[in-house]
Design brief:
Layout lengths: L2 H44 L4 E6 L5 E5 L11 H15 L7 E3 L2 H4 L13 E3 H9 L4 H12 L2 H15 L21 H14 L1 H4 L6 E4 L2 E4 L11 E9 L3 E10 L2 E10 L2 H17 L23 H6 E3 L17 E8 L2 H15 L7 E7 L2 E9 L1 H13 L5 E4 L2
Antiparallel strand pairs: 1-2, 1-9, 3-4, 5-6, 7-8, 8-9, 10-11, 11-13, 11-14, 12-13
Helix pairs in contact: 2-5, 4-5, 5-6
Family: Belongs to the peptidase S11 family.
Pfam families: Peptidase_S11, SPOR
GO biological process, one term: regulation of cell shape
Length: about 400
């Protein structure tokens, strides 16, 4: 090949290479800059939403809010709605605290946090409630869901419907536990609404949220809510975490008869979330009570609407209302008790049992006051009833507006 032709060919090759090199460099530059934008976009799409809200429980007044209506993931705050529907079932009598629920394969397969329930095993309703409050057990949540809804999916529909009825306009529930589901969403405002409803509508059950531990099969199960142990006046209610939500906490505290609710979503860690909640509550307690509707004093401690004394109202912590009636004629005489409340102190329980005996008069003939320690509670009972007398005594108390249910002796 002539020298000139070779030179021309070489020049064309070099030109083509230069064009190719320039194209490669251009694409490389785009690829280098693109990930920075794309990474930021992905992070923005998946990063937890930082949101907070501070509410007066009595008036419902919002004292402070940031991103309170921005959609995020509820994580285990979901279990507050599972518990609300459970409390409502207890109040209707469709569930009993001592009722044993069977663990399905689906429930047992839930990932941690869990109690490691075995398929075919059982757990009582009250144990399941305590498992949700302390361990945030996903398997126990599904057990309750299946008992109340037939299936977890059907129960989730009931949860969403209940949320709408409460005014939680942006919340959709897809499961009973809060495990990751991209369609399960809520807002800080909706979680504050739910917290307020639990406190005000289910005062007799709210004390469950105060529990920091419970005994399960010979071991002590401890709770996740560390702030409750160190913030004065705080008595609940629920923590939550999944990667998409960050660290969540719905909290409530009382000082001088004034109750506040603080919800923080999307914390970077449990410690920073707790600090943020404490700061919110501090801000709120420094502000005067809303003049429109002062918060009632310790609404969570009322046991019945006709508790016999102020001391009783201020120490009662839970009440159950099962529908089971001691109607069995085969029960031995004197083998039944009636339970009229559960209290934070033995003295209040004894006072309630004594007052109930005097109130019943002849209906309590042969029965004697009995105080039963259960966890951190003292249950007030009158023991020694025949089955028919226990039934009649509870009927009389309920007609007068007092709480009561019968317990068969063991």
């Amino acid at each position: 090949m002539p020298l000139l032709a070779r030179a021309s060919t070489l020049l064309l090759s070099l030109t083509a290479f230069a064009v190719l090199l320039a194209a490669v460099l251009l694409v490389s530059a785009l690829l280098v800059s693109q990930p920075a934008w794309a990474k930021g976009s992905r992070k923005a799409g998946w990063a937890p939403v930082a949101a907070e809200i501070l509410m007066e429980a009595g008036s419902g007044k919002i004292l402070r809010a940031r991103n309170a209506d921005t959609l995020t993931y509820p994580a285990s705050l979901t279990k507050m709605m599972t518990l609300m529907l459970t409390f409502e079932a207890l109040d209707r009598g469709t569930l009993r605290p001592d009722q044993r629920l069977v663990v399905s394969q689906h429930a047992a397969a839930m990932p941690p946090s869990r109690l490691w329930l075995a398929p075919g095993g059982t757990i009582t309703v009250e144990q399941a409630i305590l498992a949700l409050v302390t361990r945030s057990a996903n398997d126990a949540a599904v057990v309750l869901a299946e008992a109340l809804g037939g299936s977890e999916a059907a129960f989730a529909n009931k949860m969403t419907a209940r949320a709408r009825a409460l005014g939680m306009r942006r919340t959709v529930f897809r499961n009973a536990s809060g495990l990751p589901d991209r369609l399960q969403r809520t807002t800080a405002r909706d979680m504050a609404i739910l917290s307020r409803a639990l406190i005000r509508r289910h005062a007799g059950h709210y004390a469950y949220f105060q529990r920091r531990s419970f005994d399960w099969q010979g071991t002590t199960v401890h709770g996740h809510n560390r702030l409750m142990a160190r913030y004065p006046g705080m008595d609940g209610i629920k923590t939550g975490y999944i990667a998409a939500s960050g660290f969540n906490l719905a909290a409530s505290a009382v000082r001088d008869g004034r109750r506040l609710i603080a919800v923080v979503m999307g914390g970077h860690s449990a410690a920073t979330r707790d600090t943020q909640v404490a700061d919110l509550l501090d801000i709120g307690f420094k502000r005067p009570t809303s003049p429109a509707r002062p918060a009632p004093a310790t609404p969570d401690l009322v046991i019945t609407r006709k508790s016999s004394s102020a001391a009783e109202r201020n120490t009662a912590v839970s009440i159950a209302a099962p529908s089971a009636k001691p109607a069995s004629a085969m029960s031995p005489a004197g083998s039944w008790s009636i339970q009229v409340g559960a209290f934070a102190s033995r003295a209040a329980a004894a006072r309630s049992a004594g007052d109930t005996a005097r109130r019943l008069g002849a209906l309590a003939a042969g029965a004697s006051p009995e105080i039963v320690r259960s966890g951190g509670l003292y249950k007030a009972r009158l023991a020694g009833f025949p089955a028919t007398n226990a039934d009649a005594a509870c009927a009389a108390l309920k007609a007068a507006g007092h709480g009561c249910f019968a317990v068969q002796g063991r």
